[in-house]
Specification:
The protein is of the alpha/beta class. It contains twelve helices and 14 strands. It has helices spanning 41-53, 110-113, 128-131, 134-148, 150-176, 181-220, 240-246, 248-254, 275-278, 281-303, 320-330, 345-354; strands at residues 6-14, 21-25, 30-34, 72-81, 84-93, 99-102, 105-106, 119-122, 227-232, 265-270, 273-274, 308-312, 338-342, 360-364. The strands form three sheets. A six-stranded antiparallel β-sheet has the order 2-1-4-5-6-7, covered by helices on one side. Strands 8-12-13-3-14 form a five-stranded parallel β-sheet, with helices on both faces. Helix 11 (320-330) links the parallel strand 12 (308-312) and strand 13 (338-342). The radius of gyration is 22 Å and the shape is globular. It binds adenosine-5'-triphosphate and magnesium ion. Residues 41-42, 312-313 line the site of magnesium ion.
Length: 370
Amino acid sequence: MPETPFYIHNIKLTNFKNFGFISLDFSENLNFITGNNGIGKTSLLDAVYYTCFTKSYLTSSDLLVPNFKDDFFRIESNIVLNTENQSIEIKYLKQEKKEVLVNKVRIDKQAEFIGKYPCVIIIPDDNQLILGGSEVRRKFIDSTLSQLSREYFTNLVIYNKILAQRNALLKSFYENRSFNKDLLDIYTQKLLECGKIIFNYRKQYLQKFVPIFQTIYQQIFKGNESISITYESELLLTDFETVMSKNEQQDRTAQRTTEGIHTDDLVFELNNFPIRKIGSQGQQKTFLLSLKLAQYELLKLEKQVPPLLLLDDIFDKLDVERISSILRLINTDRFSQVFITHTDEKAIQALIRENEIQNYKIINLGPLQK
Ligand SMILES: Nc1ncnc2c1ncn2[C@@H]1O[C@H](COP(=O)(O)OP(=O)(O)OP(=O)(O)O)[C@@H](O)[C@H]1O
Ligand SMILES: [Mg+2]
């Protein structure tokens, strides 16, 4: 077992998505969540994710989270962290501020909460990390670094706010055919301050991340293809001040800040070609799993707390060998509490037998809760 235990032993959901009310006890190791399509397996993982981040992984707006028949939801999780029992309660009522209570004490700032309860989630839609636009990959880096450093998280929040304000200013200059350089410079200066901090974190983080990722891809998945991740940032070539002054005219015409850490990207290659274009579905999925497991390893290493691992429908498109590799891997003490969803309970039981899995619980969500 890892030195610092961290797990959820019970969760109670009220009006969370399709659940009316449900109370579930979990194993501190492996949890298999089974049941038919639409029963709420993904929603349950999202509720666990919500506990760790006070927001949904699937729905960007809280408005879609309460059961359609109601206007509030509540999540109550009883967790163990460092041998200490803690309760996390999240209450939401439409049109009101969300309430987060840890051991009945209200937490007012998200920054106080984020990173305390590390968690890594993998859902089918995450293939957007490979197939989608650069903002998905930035979000992936941001989600780890925000869990690792409050300085990163706060600077990112400020950067995004200033960026939106600077863009609005550029737009108003354009529309009013006016220009006030001193005013623009105030925003540029603030962007530079936060941007440099963010860039340095990202650069250092990727230096650690890439070798871990390579090892996982090659050792665990026995992938013998050559794979690479390259960090792409304007700031690797030129310092941020130069980028901003060079772009001033261009920004005014485009009515937005055209370059900065908000245009950073990661380039994923397989045998020197973009994996998005040439990778098979299984190879892409293996790449994705390796990305997320490397995220897991680094979080665990840096925080000295094993993150929760939430795996939604990950077996789809993977061959039997890769499925077994994953199951054997998560059955080792490298991982702590893991949640795996799958429609077919019988298939899960067979996999458990074949891979000699111990310390697990199967939770069949059964018929839909009304
Ligand atoms: N706010 C909400 N209120 C009520 N129902 C909702 C809400 N949001 C989503 N649902 C519904 O909840 C159900 C459960 O969805 P979920 O994605 O958790 O199912 P699942 O068990 O993961 O299914 P699958 O096996 O197809 O992945 C779906 O019918 C979905 O439409
Ligand atoms: Mg699902």
